[in-house]
């Protein structure tokens, strides 16, 4: 796949089979079943990443009284950068100026997304923060989509998001809501630059380098906000756990998924995040779900399942 490939191209372009391997004919049931499994694999990666990031976010909320919102961001990004550098050992040579520009943009988007989200989570409930944040990927799905059906699923998901908010966000802290919306815009940018980085760098090398950029940007803010509190052993341990759950694991899974999943479908799958956040809030933060919340979650999940089924049908018909 060359640098001119766009993230909105069909996932089927990445599903290839060596010519020397005997496979069923294109129209046979075995071929269709294999195509479906290949299309669902990146979807499973995205869902696993969502579970990891939201349970990590719930732990981060528990950590905020110790280190502050900006301190938590610094711990998360710095620990994740160290882990990825050790594991990936990315090469610094042999990359073009455009490659480095993509990595820097990815790092800025990642750092901005985390900083704004944790500022929001410090002021409004976790479920509400994620609900507002997911509007960014939903907007991206509408803008980037080339298929009318994706607009339908995006509209259904948006209805679930609005219902999950209780019909409006006027009762929320306006500053917290603004931070969450800003995080959503950065999340959309993250999706775009994550896909571009995945195409320009092998394995997770680009992610590791972008994480270093994000960590360096957040470090001064975290030091000013938390100071010596960042060095408390128990705080460092929880920060490392948040980094693994909310950064290393989900970002790696998403980077791999975006190599084979169109950006519009990926963006609609992100509408699962409020449902996952609500579940994490219930299990970790003891935040109960109402009947309205459950209905909203059902709408969001239904929209995401519809997007997945549309993607699988598109692959099986090619």
Describe this structure in words.
The protein has 318 residues and is mainly α. It is 76% helix and 0% strand. Helix 4 runs antiparallel to helix 5 (148-164) and helix 4 runs antiparallel to helix 9 (263-269). The radius of gyration is 20 Å and the shape is globular.
β content, as a range? under 5%
User: Which shape, going by the Cα principal axes?
Assistant: globular
Give a count of the beta strands, DSSP E runs of length 2 or more: 0
How many domain modules? 1
Provide the gyration radius in Å: 20 Å
Q: Helix coverage percent of residues?
A: over 70%
Structural class comes to mainly alpha
What low-confidence regions span 5 or more consecutive residues with pLDDT below 50?
Answer: 1-26
For the biggest sheet, the summary is: none
Number of helices: 11
Compute the average pLDDT: 77
Termini separation: 18 Å
- Please write the string of helix (H) and strand (E) elements: HHHHHHHHHHH
Question: What are the defining features of this structure?
Answer:
318 residues; mainly alpha; 11 helices; globular; disordered N terminus
Short description:
This protein is an all-alpha fold and 318 residues long. It has one domain (35-316).
Helix-strand layout with pairing:
Elements: H1 29-88, H2 97-121, H3 126-133, H4 135-144, H5 148-164, H6 174-200, H7 205-226, H8 233-258, H9 263-269, H10 273-285, H11 291-316
């Amino acid at each position: 796949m060359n640098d001119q490939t766009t993230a909105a191209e069909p996932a089927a372009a990445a599903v290839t089979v060596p010519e020397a391997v005997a496979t069923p004919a294109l129209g046979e049931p075995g071929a269709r079943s294999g195509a479906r499994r290949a299309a669902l694999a990146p979807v499973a990666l995205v869902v696993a990443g969502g579970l990891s990031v939201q349970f990590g976010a719930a732990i981060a909320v528990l950590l905020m009284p110790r280190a502050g919102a900006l301190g938590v961001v610094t711990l998360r990004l710095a620990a994740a950068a160290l882990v990825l550098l050790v594991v990936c050992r990315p090469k610094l040579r042999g990359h073009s100026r455009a490659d480095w520009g993509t990595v820097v943009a990815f790092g800025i988007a990642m750092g901005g997304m985390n900083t704004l989200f944790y500022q929001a989570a410090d002021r409004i409930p976790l479920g509400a923060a994620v609900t507002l944040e997911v509007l960014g990927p939903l907007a991206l799905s509408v803008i980037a989509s080339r298929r009318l059906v994706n607009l339908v699923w995006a509209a259904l998901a948006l209805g679930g998001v609005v219902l999950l908010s209780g019909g409006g966000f006027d009762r929320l802290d306006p500053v917290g809501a603004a931070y969450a919306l800003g995080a959503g815009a950065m999340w959309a940018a993250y999706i775009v630059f994550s896909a571009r980085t995945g195409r320009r760098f092998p394995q997770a090398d680009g992610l590791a380098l972008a994480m270093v950029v994000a960590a360096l940007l957040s470090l001064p803010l975290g030091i000013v906000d938390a100071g010596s509190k960042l060095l408390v052993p128990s705080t460092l341990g929880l920060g490392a756990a948040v980094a693994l759950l909310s950064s290393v694991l989900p970002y790696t899974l998403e980077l791999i998924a975006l190599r084979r999943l169109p950006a519009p479908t990926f963006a609609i799958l992100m509408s699962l995040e409020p449902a996952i956040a609500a579940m994490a809030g219930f299990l970790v933060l003891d935040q109960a779900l109402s009947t309205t919340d459950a209905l909203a979650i059902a709408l969001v999940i239904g929209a995401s399942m519809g997007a997945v089924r549309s993607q699988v049908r598109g692959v099986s018909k090619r």
